[in-house]
Amino acid sequence: MPSVAGPFSPVLPLRFGQFCLDAALAQPNLPGSAEPHLPSAVFPLSAQPTGCQIVQRHACPCCQQEIYPQNTACLNCGADLVFAPRQGVFVEVAQSPGGPCCNRAAIACNWQAETTGGLCLSCAHTTVVPDLGLAGNAERWERLETAKRALILMLVRLGLPLVTAEGIAVPRFELKGDPVDSAAPRVLTGHENGTITINIAEADDAERARIRAQMQEPYRTLAGHFRHEVAHHYWEVLTAADPARIAALRVVFGDERQDYAAALQSHYVTGAPSDWPERFISAYASAHPWEDFAETWAHVLHMLDGLETAQAFGLILSGPPRTLERLVEVPMPDLARDWISLSLGLNAVNQAMGHEAFYPFVLSPAVIDKLEAVRALMAEAGARGRCELG
Ligand SMILES: [Zn+2]
Ligand SMILES: [Zn+2]
Ligand SMILES: [Zn+2]
Predict the structure, then answer these.
(1) Which residues form the Zinc-ribbon domain (predicted)?
(2) What is residue 23's predicted lDDT score, i.e. its pLDDT?
């Protein structure tokens, strides 16, 4: 069955691309018309150069109807589609060099296989999947992989390494459920030596909300988990690749050689210092320099993704639209200005709708300095792998 989730009605006009929203809006592409009225300023996907012009909104290669990122088929013309992550476009299954990921039937993975009949770029990073003999685990796996694909796509676009020197996919992801035996040790979400373990219970909204309340966290999402845990991996990888980076990170985040287990224990016993909002992005970030880095890294990814998406939907009107590849090169004070403005507006909209805050965080000057350190690291470390936009 095609996955057709998404907020886009088939009768919505075409409004995709970051470079020409106004032109697109001026000439809607109404389904049913014999010849789609594709605005000339909008790049046709068929002519899109590979590798660089990745945007947050996508069009069907057959009829130009907008495609929601998780869909496996076009809602308008019914074409079976796969997403090619390195090109950033949807293509028809029949035109795809590798065809669909072999996890497509199991978890509605809509990415293109790296080799015919094989896994996609994202699924290849998962080395342990949940026990599919247990009720609900297939759905949990699907939700986790959907969030992971979004992470992997960001990492690809940022040019950050995703393989070892030997060509092995890293980080590895182990998606595990708690043992049936309630006395057995629970699965802890975390990172160790290139392996990220996720407790699949986090894929259950009710369970995640329960833990969030228990931990008194203002924000807990699958995207947040993936972005946080992958930060620990990149601390290791990027500092191993260039030892000079570790000295720079210590200046900003402190000395990570302090006892990690003791620091976490102390954090859980005594809590965060009362002035943590002035120095940390979250209370948990105050537990240890590694956690400070990971929380900060996750927020940089939140901001980059949030800003690019907002631009793609016309929610940021100042300045020229910039893709993720360009946003990561923008100094943090400039990004933070747009991000705070956007967050204030979206928080108010959420409040108007009775929802919780879109972004329940405060960016103090000290925190912006930390965000800038991570942004600069991402930009520098990914520079060689990042696309050059025309
Ligand atoms: Zn279509
Ligand atoms: Zn896949
Ligand atoms: Zn952590």
Answers:
(1) 58-132
(2) 26
% the chain with pLDDT above 70 = 85
Query: What is the per-residue pLDDT across 342-380, written as a single tens digit (0 to 9) for each?
Result: 999 999 999 999 999 999 999 999 999 999 999 999 999
Which helix (H) or strand (E) segment holds residue 211: the answer is helix 205-214
4 CA → ligand 1 middle, Å: 12
Closest ligand to the CA of 106: 2
Mean of pLDDT over the chain: 86
- For residues 328-337, give the mean pLDDT: 96
Question: For residue 85, how far is its CA from the centre of ligand 2 (angstroms)?
Answer: 11
Report residues near ion ligand 2: CB below 5 Å.
101, 103, 109, 111, 120, 123
The separation between CA 219 and the C-alpha centre of its own chain, rounded to angstroms, equals 15
280 neighbors 291 (Cβ within 8 angstroms) = no
Confidence of residue 184 (pLDDT cuts 50, 70, 90): very high
Distance CA 85, CA 160 (A): 14
pLDDT-derived band of residue 321, with 50, 70 and 90 as boundaries?
confident
User: CA torsion angle for 286, 290, 291, 297 (degrees, to 10)?
Assistant: 120
- Given pLDDT bands bounded at 50, 70 and 90, which one contains residue 54? low
- Ligand having the closest approach to the CA of 146: 2
38, 89 Cβ separation under 8 angstroms: no
Say yes or no to pLDDT of 62 above 80: yes
List CB-based neighbours of ion ligand 1 within 5 Å. Answer: 60, 62-63, 65, 74, 76-77, 79
Output the CA–CA distances (angstroms, integers) from residue 310 to 56, 122, 320, 371, in the order listed.
9, 25, 13, 20
Domain locations in the chain as residue ranges: 1-121, 127-238, 242-390
On whether the CB atoms of residues 252 and 295 are closer than 8 A, the answer is no
Q: How far away, in angstroms, is 106 Cα from ligand 2 center?
A: 10
Ligand nearest to C-alpha 125: 2
Which letter does DSSP use for residue 122 in this model? T
pTM for the structure as a whole: 0.86
* DSSP string for residues in 154-204: HHHHHT---B-TT--B-SEEEEEPPPSSTTSPPPPPEEETTEEEEEGGGGS
